[in-house]
Write a structure and sequence with these properties.
heterodimer; A: alpha/beta; B: six-stranded parallel sheet; 28% helix; binds iron/sulfur cluster; FTHF_cligase-like_sf (chain B); LUD_dom (chain B); NagB/RpiA_transferase-like (chain B); Lactate utilization protein C (chain B); iron (chain A)
Chain lengths: 707, 184
């Protein structure tokens, strides 16, 4: 287990990195999912605000789940359905086996259901002599190929038309031409007798409605309609978290799901089933049966665990998989167990165990993007951090992750011994040794340490504001303090030029690396310490301004989540600003007009760091540059540059190599964009982009001095 | 109205026909059957007059209609080339026809044949998706036992091979909606 888990993971990553075609296909799927979603949001009245509604509805329904489940069961029974609660997967399987045996079933037609995959329902049935046929085309292709789904919404996306034609030629025994309409005809003919003769139809459900005792099933192909209306018996396996309170809740989920997955509203077919529907008129001797199995399988425990509860808000739309940068390279066969992608880490931990989740949780580079796209706004980054934390408590942290978490200490040492440390970092043999011993990628060109830190220099500096309009608390973090004090001081100059007095009170580093690698005790300690140190200044009416996007994100987003209910953390979060957003505000307030031709004739490509997205997407910096006459284009792939904070500083497959593969499409965009240089506010993204593109990369403030 | 049902349904690869009366709707059904050289037509969930009118318009075609005997289902309906079902209402914003069935024969009529035609009364088209809640609740509440509501927004579609949109993998590859104009 723990001893060979990483070699196994490395092996899979290596294979995935070599299979370019697959990752290109996967990225194509993901991009299409994101683009169609974005287009749908444009057309949707209220745009992305439905996420707030979904979040609120899920919070309410999961809070009241025991009551709603009881109500659902009562109503469904009143309507003639047979309801069974299964505490475990084994119980659900036993129920289905028993039912199949009692009914003498030989064939079960199935429509796509992740919940049946979760408990691996097919195999025991097949072993018991029942033929189980997937009817969703993608799932059928995968089943006939003997493989596992590659993508949640498009499970067989790695199979091209010729592959599919070959599969159906094999199973039908006749040559299937290799074009899609012809394949469809064959599929239709192949499945029709199965639909007509299946003894049992087996489906999942996307929603259960407590108010009515009904279930909703969504498909585009219409296979679930057939599966649930043909056989003399229908089994629905539903995860208990799918139960909502009202018809309106159901309508919301039915909308949020396809909008987030593929930009549809709603899927082509939505079936709201209530009771056992009879088939045709006639003597009632052979009444149809409708069985609903409500599955727990770890869900109650997730609900009781404050760190994991949010996972139950998941509506399985797959949007998080459409944005996760590392998933986009390695795919669901590496980044997942049964449940793939970001939510796969959380759900695997909940239903298949911490250890299984820990096998691939390290693929999360904590970019935070999954949370931003999730219709239920699930805080997966933090949940995954918690999983890494618990996993490490059982098996220990990887050495290299310990090193990265302690980067601030190393930086302190680096500054103190700057000439020597810089020499060492510039030396190939030493870098190779460092990669071997602590895992720091030898290929990375790291910024040198400054001998005199920002803190030292700021302490000796005299303020230039005689009568301050307001006072700003400056949050420095590691890079500006230890590597680039000039940048920190330029930020202070810019603030002072707008009449803001700047103070740099006692503070710790942001601590984000602890979150990224799952050092949750330290992360909480730092969050508390910074909140306690800085909140008193906020109470005096001062605003906090941070220069590094990840540090700003830590203060403004992570701390209140780490310290739920902590007033200082909340206060600090509400008053933390990105530097440029704040500068623009001050310019507007004071009516300050910068020279409009300062950067005239210059064209820059802007890179928005992932952690900046929920903070304003870099709009402050872009405005600041444009006000000074620069032409600025936001250049993005829609996911991450691959650096993932310090992830890309680590050597090897689970670091540098994967990080470069994630970044490549973005590097290409920049190189082909025709801009003269890249501008970004993130110190680590700038290392990645400079190496990946061989272009010049600047912080906006650097442009002032480097003209 | 903020939304247009026709353009939305057609964006989803459906086909809309507007007719002036139930008689014209029956004529439209007969025409669609002729064009598809249908030998067998299945009807369900329609107003009795409309069922009679369609039958009268299609003398050369085997017409299956309610009550369907459980003895020969689902095979009987599988023989039909065209299936016609009545719709309780429709939603313009999402291009959705809403079918209500208390007997799964209705669902088979709209899901087994290659061509499905839904019949919608113009006055039952609602504008916003979110406004369908009370209507759905009323339908469910008026059936204390079984009832199945089906949202149908275009034909059966898949993108499972190379992400290319392909119609009719299982159910109908053509979805028509005949809208009977509201009486003036
Ligand atoms: S935080 Fe980023 S890397 Fe981690 S799971 Fe979410 S999207 Fe993937
Ligand atoms: S976690 Fe959120 S984005 Fe991911 S599948 Fe679930 S609901 Fe969708």
């Amino acid at each position: 287990m723990a001893t060979d888990r990483y070699p196994r993971l490395y092996h899979k990553i290596e294979a995935a990195l070599q299979d370019r075609t697959k990752s290109d296909l996967l990225r194509g799927c993901m991009k299409r999912g994101r683009d169609t979603r974005a287009a749908a949001l444009e057309a949707l009245p209220g745009g992305a605000s439905f996420r707030d509604d979904v979040r609120a509805a899920k919070e309410r329904c999961i809070e009241n789940l025991p009551r709603l489940k009881q109500q659902f069961i009562e109503r469904a029974r009143q309507r003639g359905a047979i309801v069974h609660e299964a505490a475990t997967g084994a119980e659900a399987i036993a129920y289905c086996l028993d039912l199949a045996r009692r009914r003498g079933a030989r064939t079960i037609a199935k429509s796509k259901s992740l919940t049946t995959e979760e408990i691996d329902l097919n195999h025991p049935l097949i072993e018991a002599g029942v033929e189980v046929v997937e009817t969703d085309l993608g799932e059928l292709i995968i089943q006939l190929a003997g493989e596992k789904p590659f993508h949640l919404v498009f499970p067989s996306i790695h199979k091209m038309a010729p592959d599919v034609a070959e599969i159906f030629s094999r199973v039908t025994g006749t040559e299937v031409p290799n074009d899609i309409p012809a394949i469809m005809k064959v599929v239709r003919q192949y499945l029709r007798p199965i639909f007509l003769n299946a003894d049992i139809g087996l489906t999942g459900a996307n929603v259960g409605i407590a108010e009515t005792g009904g279930i909703c099933i969504e498909t585009n192909e219409g296979n679930a309609r057939l599966v649930s209306s043909l056989g003399s018996c229908h089994i629905c396996l539903i995860g208990m978290e799918k139960i909502v309170e009202t018809v309106e809740d159901a309508l919301l989920m039915i909308l949020a799901h396809p909008v987030s997955a593929s930009g549809q509203l709603p899927t082509n077919y939505v079936t709201w089933m209530h009771g056992r529907s009879p088939l045709g008129e006639g003597p009632t001797g052979d009444d149809r049966e409708s069985h609903i199995i409500i599955l727990d399988n770890g869900r109650s425990a997730m609900r009781d665990d404050p760190e994991m509860r949010e996972a139950l808000y998941c509506i399985r739309c797959g949007a998080c998989m459409n944005i996760c940068p590392t998933y986009g390279v390695v795919g669901g066969h590496t980044f997942g167990h049964i449940y793939p992608g970001p939510m796969g880490i959380c759900w695997t931990a909940g239903v298949h165990g911490l250890e299984v989740a820990g096998d691939f949780a390290q693929l999360c580079i904590s970019c935070g993007l999954c949370k931003e796209i999730c219709p239920a706004q699930i805080n997966m980054p933090q949940m995954i951090a918690e999983i890494k934390h618990r996993d490490a408590a059982a098996t220990g942290h990887l050495l290299v992750n310990r090193v990265m978490m302690g980067a601030d200490r190393a930086a302190r040492l680096g500054s103190a011994t700057a000439p020597l440390a810089n020499l060492a970092l510039a030396s190939r043999p030493i870098r190779q040794l460092l990669e071997k011993t602590i895992g720091l990628a030898a290929e990375r060109r790291l910024p040198p340490f400054a001998f005199s830190t920002f803190m030292n220099r700021f302490a000796k500096r005299v303020s230039r504001v005689a009568t301050p309009r307001r006072t700003v608390v400056f949050f420095v973090d590691v890079y500006a303090n230890h590597n680039n004090p000039d940048l920190g001081l330029a930020a202070v100059d810019a603030l002072e030029a707008l009449g803001c007095a700047v103070i740099v009170p006692n503070q710790d580093v942001s601590g984000y690396p602890y979150i990224a690698y799952g050092g949750m005790d330290q992360a909480r300690r730092i969050a508390r310490s910074n909140s306690d140190k800085l909140a008193p200044w906020v109470r005096k009416g001062y605003e906090v301004v941070a220069i590094e996007p990840t540090a700003t994100y830590a203060l403004a987003v992570s701390y209140p989540n780490l310290l739920r209910g902590d007033e200082n953390a909340r206060l600090l979060a509400d008053h933390t600003h990105e530097l440029f957003e704040f500068l623009i505000e001050q310019e507007d307030e004071t009516g300050f007009h910068p020279p409009a031709d300062l950067f005239a004739g210059r064209r820059f490509g802007f890179h928005c760091a992932c952690h900046q997205r929920p903070l304003g997407g870099g709009s402050g910096a872009i405005k600041w540059l444009r006000r000074r006459g620069a032409q600025v284009e936001l250049i993005e792939t829609g996911t991450c540059c691959g650096m993932g904070g310090t992830f890309g500083l680590k050597g090897g497959l689970l670091g540098y190599d994967l990080s470069r593969a994630v970044g490549q499409p973005l590097f290409d965009l920049f190189v082909n964009s025709g801009v003269e240089a890249i501008v970004t506010e993130s110190s680590v993204c700038s290392i990645q982009l400079a190496e990946g593109t061989a272009m010049k990369v600047y912080h906006p403030l650097e442009l002032l001095t480097l003209r | 109205m903020d939304f247009d049902f026709t353009s939305r349904f057609e964006k989803l690869s459906g086909i809309v026909h507007r007719v002036a009366s139930p008689a014209a709707a029956a004529e439209k059904v007969a025409q669609l059957c002729r064009e598809r050289q249908a030998g067998c037509l299945a009807l369900a969930g329609l107003e009795p007059e409309l069922t009679a009118a369609i039958e009268a318009c299609c003398p050369a075609i085997t017409v299956l209609k309610e009550p369907y005997s459980r003895a020969d289902l689902p095979a009987a309906i599988d023989r039909a080339t065209v299936g016609v079902t009545g719709m309780a209402f429709a939603i313009a914003q999402s291009g959705t026809m809403v079918e209500v069935s208390v007997n799964d024969a209705t669902r088979l009529v709209s899901s087994l044949p290659r061509t499905h035609i839904g019949v919608v009364r113009e006055e039952t088209i609602i504008d916003h998706y979110a406004d369908s809640g009370p209507l759905i609740r009323a339908i469910i509440d008026s059936h204390p036992e079984q009832v199945v509501i089906s949202f149908i927004s275009g034909p059966s579609r898949t993108g499972d091979i190379e992400l290319k949109l392909t119609l009719g993998v299982h159910g109908p590859e053509e979805a028509h909606c005949i809208i009977i104009a509201a009486p003036a």
